Amino acid sequence: MLDRQVVEQEEEELRQRVSRLDDAARAAYYKRLEKRIRDPDTYATLNFLFITGLHHFYLKRWLRGALSLAGFFAGVGLILAGQYLIGVLLIAAIGLWELYELFRSQLIVQDYNNKAMRAALEEAQPGRIRS
User: Fold this and answer.
1) Run of H or E residues at 129
2) Residue 9 falls within a domain, yes or no?
3) N or C: where does the chain have the smaller number of CB atoms within 10 Å of the terminal CB?
4) DSSP states of 41-92
5) Model-level pTM?
6) How far apart, in whole angstroms, are the C-alpha atoms of residue 63 and residue 128?
7) CA-CA distance, 90 to 8, in Å (whole number)?
8) Any residues with CB less than 8 A from the CB of 72 and at least 6 apart, and which?
9) Is residue 76 part of a domain?
10) How many domains, the chain?
């Protein structure tokens, strides 16, 4: 469970570490980071689409995306096979979880971006990051 205050504090600490890097290390950091950073609005849009799981793939959470898609298609298959209640309940459960993630999309992507920032920092100056 993500805590907004902890994620925001972590982001601020990472930004302070970046500001203490020398120019060459900072340039290397931003070069690495630009390909990894994700947009919260894109994540929310993908989450909002009826095709479940796309937003997980956007954050490279392959297993979650695959499970979400498989659950959705299993629900559709159950409905088509005549198991309406089970199929609808499965799709509704997935939908409720996706709705929860939609409302927390900003925080989820912010946490993902913090991890990307941390990795880029470690690569830009391995072993020499000052706290």
Assistant:
1) none
2) yes
3) N
4) HHHHHHHHSSSTTHHHHHTT-HHHHHHHHHHHHHHHHHHHTT-HHHHHHHHH
5) 0.83
6) 34
7) 34
8) 51, 52, 53, 91, 94
9) yes
10) 1
- Tens-level pLDDT at each residue, the chain (131 residues): 789 999 999 999 999 999 988 888 888 899 989 989 999 999 999 888 766 788 999 999 999 999 999 999 999 999 999 999 999 999 999 989 988 888 999 999 999 999 999 999 888 765 554 44
Task: Answer whether residue 88 is part of any domain.
Answer: yes
State which residues form the domain around 103. Answer: 4-124
Residues 37-51, buried b or exposed e (16+ Cβ, 10 A)?
ebeeeebbebbeeee
Q: Give CA–CA dist 57/43, Å, rounded.
A: 10
C-alpha span between 103 and 22 (Å, rounded):
38
- Residue 119 counted as domain residue: yes
Phi and psi, residue 42, nearest 5°: -65, -45
